[in-house]
């Protein structure tokens, strides 16, 4: 088993019309044994920028703490929040400097620019960025997430439709992966608000 699959995870970010959604499952496992059913994989950097970390849970928490530290330094120096593109470059650089003993994480970054244009990207454990205009996925359920998102995605979705689409894609995908599941955690971010919802899923 790959170390990336040790704890199990499912992450997806999807763009809508001047909004984006980022969602994850809630299971923390050690291989096939479930340890927790309310594990947090999505973290808020600021009101318009979120990061999801799939992979090894301990590395995800360590990486998140380092990213918060770097972002606070940026806020103190620049007196403004970081743009999503800048933050993606920061995450990439942070991962690449540890390339000989990497963090076993695959991040998914989603944010809104100053012009309310959604930005999403993912990268591998050494920081090679993969940008997308529709959706990005990560984690052990990524194969079934690709299929579900490909089938359900439409352009210029309103926030409520985007929530429905990303939720259905997530729930149908984790049912096909025994290492992720136990419900979902969804954030839908618009220029004016952040909506957080918990999904109930199959408990097996």
Report strand %.
Answer: 25-35%
Secondary structure tally, helices: 4
Q: What structural category characterises the helix and strand content? A: alpha+beta
| Strand line-up across the major sheet | 10-1-2-11-12
Shape type: globular
Largest sheet: 5 strands, antiparallel
Using DSSP, what is the number of strands?
Answer: 12
Radius of gyration: 16 Å
Based on the coordinates given, report the CATH architecture.
4-Layer Sandwich
Low-confidence stretches: none
**In oligomeric terms, what are we looking at?**
single chain
Provide the residue-averaged pLDDT: 93
List SSEs in N-to-C order: EEEEEEHHEEEEHHEE
How many structural domains? 1
Q: Write down the CATH topology.
A: Glutamine Phosphoribosylpyrophosphate, subunit 1, domain 1
CATH class: Alpha Beta
What is the CATH homologous superfamily assignment?
A: Aminohydrolase, N-terminal nucleophile (Ntn) domain
Cα distance, first to last residue?
Answer: 21 Å
- Helix content estimate: 25-40%
Question: Can you tell me about this structure?
Answer:
One of its GO terms (cellular component) is proteasome core complex, beta-subunit complex. Belongs to the peptidase T1B family. The chain is α+β, with helices and mostly antiparallel strands. It has a single domain, classed as Glutamine Phosphoribosylpyrophosphate, subunit 1, domain 1, CATH 3.60.20. Helices cover 30% and strands 32% of the residues. The protein is built from four helices and twelve strands, in the order E-E-E-E-E-E-H-H-E-E-E-E-H-H-E-E. It has a five-stranded antiparallel sheet, covered by helices on one side. Strands 5-6-7-8-9 form a five-stranded antiparallel sheet, with helices on one face. A two-stranded antiparallel ribbon has the order 3-4. A hairpin with a 5-residue loop joins strand 7 and strand 8. The chain is globular and about 45 Å long. The model has no long low-confidence stretch (mean pLDDT 93).
């Amino acid at each position: 088993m790959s170390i990336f699959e040790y704890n199990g995870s499912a992450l997806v970010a999807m763009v809508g019309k001047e909004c984006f959604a980022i969602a994850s499952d809630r299971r923390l496992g050690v291989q096939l044994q479930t340890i927790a059913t309310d594990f947090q994989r999505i973290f808020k950097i600021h009101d318009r920028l979120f990061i999801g970390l799939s992979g090894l849970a301990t590395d995800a928490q360590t990486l998140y703490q380092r990213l918060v530290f770097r972002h606070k330094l940026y806020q103190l120096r620049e007196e403004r929040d970081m743009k999503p593109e800048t933050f993606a470059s920061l995450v990439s650089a942070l991962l690449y400097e540890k390339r000989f003993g990497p963090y076993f994480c695959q991040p998914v970054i989603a944010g809104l620019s100053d012009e309310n244009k959604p930005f999403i990207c993912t990268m591998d454990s050494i920081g090679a960025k993969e940008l997308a205009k529709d959706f990005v996925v990560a984690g052990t359920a990524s194969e079934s997430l690709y299929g579900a998102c490909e089938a359900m995605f439409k352009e210029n979705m309103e926030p409520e439709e985007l929530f429905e689409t990303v939720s259905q894609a997530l729930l149908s995908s984790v049912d096909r992966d025994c290492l992720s599941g136990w419900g979902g955690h969804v954030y839908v971010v618009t220029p004016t608000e952040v909506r957080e919802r918990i999904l109930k899923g199959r408990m097996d």
